[in-house]
Amino acid sequence: MRPPEFWYGAGNAPWPRLLGPLGGLYGAAARLRWNLTPSRRAPVPVICVGNLVAGGAGKTPLALAIARHLQARGRAVHFISRGYGGSADGVQVDAGRHGASDVGDEALLLARMAPTWAGADRYASAAAAADAGADLVILDDGYQNPALIKDTSIVVVDGETGFGNGRLMPAGPLRELPGPGLARAHAAVILGEDKVDADVVIAAEGPAGLPVFGARLEAATADAERLAGRRVFAFAGIARPDKFFATLGGIGCEIAASLVFDDHHPYTGRELSDIVEKAKSLDAVPVTTEKDHVRLDKAAAAAGGIETVHVDIAWDDAAAFTGWLDERIQGAARGD
């Protein structure tokens, strides 16, 4: 499903107030879970990339960027993913055998870069990764999962929506309130222009001196050059499809039309055929996100000429972030 507009303060809907008591119950249940779930330390250091809101912050691109940096440093990085939307549990992702219905779309994206383990038991996944040769694991999401101790936790914040209306689900987008959530963080990354003063909230609610880094998502250079100036029919089934459409506009695409599906939408053959035919009728190229593309039938997507736009992290100050990250990892190795 797509997040409701009232989560981000749109209009004068009464739902945040009416759903407030349910948000209180959600928060109480989350606190109880933290208090009752035993935490275990993995055999190798764990870097967690998470957020405080439901979906759409940009966790997976950041996890990939961190892995790319660490691989360049010679680290044997593995990923851990819940495998949201997949039926398999406790498996190493095999792109030749698994699809999005098995392990989820994020896990398939991660597995393109490094060995990836999908399962509900994050500790078991980390232990399996260590047994398979990992000397460090990156947990994509799982910030609210208390079962696995994190050595470094990074909270990702969308600069356009921040912490939404400041309410807990279902009254708002928050998985937990900024105060207690940021208290466990070692750094925050604001992705995109900060239009909602997220930095002010972080400074007020987070621990003193919490490092805050700025970055943005940019289309990969090859994709931008290939699609610049072309007429496209854009479609996406992600939490924030408007971000994808803005990316296309930013690289110079002419968006003839767009189509939005629910986040993690499993595309059918009929839907793909309709998309390709609609694009042809508009004399446009069908184009989607990398996350959507792994949910498409490969043969049908290739036959229909469906293009994909990959996104990369562009840092405001890359040296500042990587320097901080390297120091964190070295500190974990020293037992600081």
Description:
The chain is an alpha/beta fold and 336 residues long. The protein folds into two domains: 35-217 and 314-334, Rossmann fold, CATH 3.40.50; 221-309, Rossmann fold, CATH 3.40.50.2300. The protein contains 14 helices and 13 strands. The radius of gyration is 20 Å and the shape is globular. The protein starts with 14 loop residues before the first helix and ends with a helix. The strands form two sheets. Strands 3-4-2-5-1-6-7-8-13 form a nine-stranded mixed β-sheet, with helices on both faces. Strands 10-9-11-12 form a four-stranded parallel β-sheet. The longest helix has 17 residues, at 20-36. The chain has helices at 15-18, 20-36, 59-72, 100-103, 105-111, 122-131, 178-183, 198-205, 221-227, 241-250, 269-281, 290-293, 298-303, 318-334, and strands spanning 46-50, 77-81, 91-92, 116-118, 136-140, 152-158, 187-191, 212-219, 231-236, 254-260, 285-289, 307-309, 311-315.
Quickly list its features.
336 residues, alpha/beta, Rossmann fold, 9-stranded mixed sheet, 4-stranded parallel sheet, 13 strands, globular
Outline:
It is built from 14 helices and 13 strands. By secondary structure, the protein is an alpha/beta fold. It is globular.
CATH architect. name of the largest domain: 3-Layer(aba) Sandwich
CATH superfamily annotation of the largest domain? P-loop containing nucleotide triphosphate hydrolases
Shape designation? globular
User: Could you say what the CATH topology of the largest domain is called?
Assistant: Rossmann fold
Strand order of the largest sheet: 3-4-2-5-1-6-7-8-13
**How does the major sheet shape up?**
9 strands, mixed
The overall average pLDDT, rounded, is 95
| Rg of Cα set | 20 Å
| Number of helical stretches of at least 4 residues | 14
Instruction: Count up the domains.
Output: 2
Q: How much of the sequence is in beta strands? A: 15-25%
Strand element count: 13
H/E element order: HHEHEEHHEHEEHEHEHEHEHEHHEEH
- Helical amount: 25-40%
Output the CATH class name of the largest domain: Alpha Beta
- Distance from N terminus to C terminus (CA atoms, Å) equals 42 Å
Which structural class best describes the helix and strand composition? Answer: alpha/beta
